[in-house]
Structures are given as C-alpha cells and as structure tokens.
Amino acid sequence: MDHQPKFFENLSGAGKAIAVLTSGGDAQGMNAAVRAVVRMGIYVNAKVYFIYEGYQGMVDGGDNIVEVSWESVSSILQVGGTVIGSARCKPFRTREGRLQAAFNLVQRGITNLCVIGGDGSLTGANLFREEWSGLLEELAQKGKIDAEAVKKYAYLNIVGMVGSIDNDFCGTDMTIGTDSALHRIIEVVDAIMTTAQSHQRTFVLEVMGRHCGYLALVSALACGADWVFIPEYPPEEGWEDSMCVKLSENRARKKRLNIIIVAEGAIDCHNKPITSEKVKDLVVQRLGFDTRVTILGHVQRGGTPSAFDRILASRMGVEAVLALLEATPDTPACVVSLSGNQAVRLPLMECVQMTQEVQKAMDEGRFLEAVRLRGRSFENNLNTYKLLSHKKPDAELPKTNFNVAVLNVGAPAAGMNAAVRAAVRVGMTEGHKIFAVIDGFEGFARGKIKEISWGDVGGWTGQGGSILGTKRTLPAKYLEKIADQMRTNNINALMVIGGFETCDRIKQSASGTKRRVFIIETMGGYCGYLANMGALAAGADAAYIFEEQFDIRELQANVEHLTEKMKTSIQRGLVLRNENCNENYTTDFIYQLYSEEGKGVFDCRKNVLGHMQQGGAPSPFDRNFGTKISAKAMQWISKKLKETYRKGAGKVFANTDDSVCLLGMRRRNLVFQPVAELKSETDFVHRIPKEQWWLKLRPLMKILAKYKTSYDVSDSGQLEHVAMLPKEAETGAI
Asked: Who's near 605: CB < 8 A, 6+ residues apart?
C-alpha cells in the first residue's frame, strides 16, 4: 500500500517529561534501551528522567528520580545489566504505594512513562495508568496537589519494552536480553564440547526458564543436543527408555559426547518436575556413562550484550519515545516489539493476557495449545529440533528416488555448516538421497561429489567457515561440466548456500582511553550493512557506506562534531568505514584527515578488521537462522520435485521461473522469490540489492550520535493486535 512518508520532525516533545525505569529481573541490552530513550527524548526537546531502582524508586522519590542529560548515558551501551537498577517492590502493589508514586511523578511534571521489564512489571504499569486519574483526585482531596495539577496532568501515557532473557512474552519475536543469554549458553556448550570429547562424557546442562523453554529449546537446536526438556512440551510416557536408547545409539556411532539440555521449569506429562540431577542419575544407573551436571544460573544474565540485543534495544527505545509522543488519552498502554525485521506496537494487556494463557494451558495439561500460543517462531523451533535430532529407522522413511545436491558458494560465512546439516537431515527425512559437493561450483565441475549420511553432519552446527569448502568461482565457465555431473549423478535438485558475500558477524565496540577516535574498516564489499549495523550496535559517531554518498564537506562536519563532543565529558569517538564506500576517501585518508584536524583535541587509531569477521564459531542467531531456513528450503525443494515429476517419463520437468528461488526475509516473513524476479531488483555491478531495508535504520545511528537528521516513521504508529501478527509465515526470529 503506497503512503506518504511521515517524518518524526513533526513530533515535538517540548513541554513533555518522560521517565524511564527498569524493573524485574535484569537483562543484557536494558542499558541500550535506556540510552535510546534518553537520547531520543532529549533530541525531541522533552525532559527525561531516570527512576532508579524500578518501582521502589518511584515510590521512594527524592534522589531516585533525577533529570538526565545526553552525557548521562555515555558508555553504557556495552554494559550488561541495568545502570539504573532494578528492584522488586511490595509497596507499589498497594494503592498507598501507587498514590505516593503518582505524587512523586506529578511533582516533576512526569506523565510519560517508559517501563523496561517483564510481564509483571508491565501489568503493574498498566494498573497504575488505569488508576491515575483517581490517584490524582485523591491527592487533591488530601491537599497534596491542587486542582490545576489534576487538570494539567490528567492522564498518564505508558509504553513498555520487554526485557527478559527467557523470551517468555507473547507478541514479540525476541525480548531484550534473550540473544545475549543464548550467547552465554552456547559459549559454555562449545567449551564443554572440547573437554567432553576428550573423555567420552555425557553432560546435563540446566538453563534458565522456569515457565518458558525458549532458551533450552533454541540452545538445543544451536548445539545439536541429544535431548531437551522444556515445560511447554513434556516428554511422552516412557521417555526414560527412549532417551537411553538414543544415547546408546549415538555412543555406538562413535559419538564421544552426549549433551542433554534441561530448562529449570521442565516437567513430565503429569506436571511433575524433571530436574537435571534426576536426568543425570537416570543416565548413570541405566547406562553407566560418565555424566556431569552443569547449572548455568545467573551467568546467563551476565556479560556484555550481543550486537543483536544492542540494536534491538536501541530500535525499541526510539520507537517507545515516538509512541509516547503520539499517544492520546484514548491510546491503550502499548509494548513496542519486534516482528521479523520491523518494530511494531501492540496493546500491552493483549500480550500479557496471551502470555498468561500459555501458563494456564500448561497447568491444565494442554501442552500442544501452550506451544501454539507461544507463537509461530517457538513452534517452528520445536518442529525443526524434532526433525533434526531424531533419525527414524530406514524402514520408516519414505523413498522418493530423488537425488538432491548441496553446495556452498561465495565467501565462507558463519552458519553455513548448520545450514548444510539441516539440509542433509531434512532431505533424508523427506526420502531423498543427499549428495555433498566439495569446493563449490569448481568442485562440482571436477566431479567432487559424494553421497552424505545423517551421521556425517553430526556436530556441524558450531563449526565456523565451510566444511564442504567454498570458492568464489561463478558457475558460468563450468556450466557444461556441471550439467554433465548432474546427468552422471542423476541430480534432480540443487540447494545452494551462499551468494553475494554473506557475513553477519560484527560486534565492534570501542571504549577507548580519553580523547581518542577509533577508525574501523569493515568488510561487506559494496554493501554497508556491517558498517551501519555495527555502528548502531557500538554507538558510533559516523559510518561511511557506499549506499549513501558523502563528500569532503560531510567528513569535515563529522570532524567538527567530534571536536565539540570531546569538549564534554564524552571523550572518545568511533567511526566505521565500509571497505568499498569510496575509492578516494580511503581508510588511510580518513585517518589522516581526522588526525590532522583533531590535533591538540584528540588522537586517532585505525583498525582494518579484515577476515577475522568471517572467522570464529557462528553465533546462536547464525546457527539457528541457517538451520531453520535450510530446513524450510529443503521442504520447498521436496514439494517442487513432487509437483514437477512426471511418472510416465520418470523425469522431473522444472523449467518455470518459480523452480529457481531465493529464500530470504522480506519485512516480517521468509519468502521464496523467483531469481528471475530478482534481476530487476539487483545491482549486479556492486553485488547488492537496489533497495536495502536497513537503510531506514541509518538515521537512528545519527540521532543517537546527536546529528540533526530526517527519519521516516511511516511504518510506525499503527497499533496492531496480537492475533493479527503473521501466523502463516515463519518470521526471522531465532
């Protein structure tokens, strides 16, 4: 639907006061959200206040509620937890406590509240909002405020952001802190895998999730765990035998390591707890395996927030301020959340009610309903895990007589191996023979192709690079030889993982010494995604990219901006440059310009990150996104093979445009798009799309770095309903 762009410059916060608080359990990324609220609020000329120690600070008042400046949130982006504190608050649960809180807010003219917390914190905020006018009237009757104040501060606006490592809030794909918690879990699993393989051990890993199994499920998917226990999907009767048989089979296949992941709230089908100790005792008694328990506990809340959480929280914080500016007395309290790669607003209480429905379904033993209520992403994670972790006996598998080849092309990217593993196992489950091509199209032409089995791809999810091997050679010069190989091996379908340089691994944070500017060069070819999103995640001052042309005047303006910044208490700067953003304004040129112009004010350092960005183990996001889109792609291939097979001829006739598709994310959904359609949308010279969705986020980096800029908020402002979020298509959440 075409619509006129709407720009946030038309929204003013003049005369408004916004307060931000964090409540409930802490989560990595909360500080990024706090920073975004403060800076966006100040940017639109609103007064912004911290409320220290959550609702307790609101009730206590005094020094717990303080006005803040731009510099107040400097250098907190990369800090875990919450710098403004969080506390459980019994007084706020009473009307007397809320009456005192209302008085403290009115004293400072605060009628806009941004609450970062879980469903309990947000429910409390909504009750506070509903009682607000009554509380003010009561304060007036007691002579604490006058009639003018009752009229002036007549209604309270509330916007919530969900900060919870459990990802237990319905209506949002990812809550702030979840991705970082997954990083902590996967770091531990990767470390355990090295020691366990030395000794042939079984590890039982207990992760957080008293009422929600998201962390357990996704980490099981990300590390290829042998078994997972979650509260939403208890194992069937007799699970003890099934699990022990599976562990024995894996050990017999020379698998030296078994990993079992248990959510702390795991239960059996009779609602009785399944503890990590119980699982360990069972394995030791039945199988005699050397078995150890590791309980992660609060480690999962710790550490620096991931790039994903920093970007998510920054986007949510900006969206929260926009929602407060646009709110009217009739606007219900809302939460800002993520759907695919878009920020959306949802009625707070609809989300809370659906979240509570999940718990009710579990309490009543309606487990399939609980899984469905958790959302499409959770359901898809569970189905994918079941598909990839348990191999059916050969006699139970269908036989299609189709041969499918899998290959990697282009630059190696973290997550490729997880995608290959998923393709092989889903393909075998569908009844196909799967062939692995070594060294991309070049290897294909040379006949480097072999059948690959279920066990061959065990343990691949956590491996970096490309185990199959990949080369940047394009297929054009080998087409005839590749066609010969396809005929020789009777290949009916190809699954190609790679493409234009794909790499989603940058977590660049520079918190340097006093008065220093870091200039960092990122990879990406002509695509500025890494530089732009890295800049947003690291709180950079500038990011130079090919998609947005710049000249010497802009470089000069950036230097002057940094010089002014160094006169405040913020005394460090960060500049990112995409490797191909401009052939003349090189990293060296920019470094020399900044060094010369900043003489006497700041000094400079430069760093070219290079191929380290492609190295290392894949992140939880890369593992799971690779796994899920690969599984989806193989199911699509199966469907197409069945549709185009002519039984009489014994051949597959696939010569239509929709038989060659690219699977990727469009706005909120994963979409199969015919490659023929992509021709008109692609800049082949620079190997990038003509339209880049992430360019819409570019102004956010500039706003949070205190540059005046234009920001299109056309996609914001519509309050949606939980039931209306996409259900048919899997979103890009992990």
From this structure: 512, 516, 517, 518, 519
DSSP string, 659-676: GSEEEEEETTEEEEEEHH
CA distances to 247, 249, 395, 450 from 253, in Å? 10, 6, 19, 20
Residue 672 has phi, psi (to 5 degrees) of: -90, 115
Check: pTM over 0.70? Answer yes or no.
yes
C-alpha closest to that of 601 among 624, 628, 571, 581: 571
Can you tell me whether residue 242 is helix, strand or coil?
helix
8 A C-beta contact, residue 136 and residue 273: no
- 8 A C-beta contact, residue 657 and residue 674: yes
DSSP lists the bridge partners of residue 672 as 663
Amino acid type, 119: D
Q: Could you give phi then psi for residue 475, rounded to 5 degrees?
A: -75, -15
Distance CA 171, CA 550 (A): 39
* Element holding 337 (H helix, E strand): strand 334-339
Backbone torsions φ then ψ of 30, nearest 5 degrees:
-60, -40
Contacts (Cβ under 8 Å, ≥6 apart) of 684: none
Q: Distance between CA 661 and CA 678 in Å, rounded?
A: 9
Name which of 517, 612, 538, 535 is nearest 581 in CA terms.
Answer: 535
Torsion of CA 593, 597, 602, 604, to 10 degrees: 10
Tokens matching residue 82: 């919450």
Determine which helix (DSSP H) or strand (DSSP E) holds 137, and give its type and residue range. helix 119-141
**Residue 693 DSSP SS3:** helix
pLDDT digits (tens, 9 = 90+) for 297-329: 888 888 899 999 999 999 999 999 999 999 988
Q: Are 616 and 505 in contact (CB under 8 A)?
A: yes
Is 166 an annotated catalytic residue?
A: yes
Q: Indicate which residue of 166, 439, 504, 541 is catalytic.
A: 166
Q: What is the pLDDT of residues 640-667, one digit of tens each?
A: 998 888 776 667 776 677 888 888 877 7
Cβ atoms of residues 310 and 532 within 8 Å = no
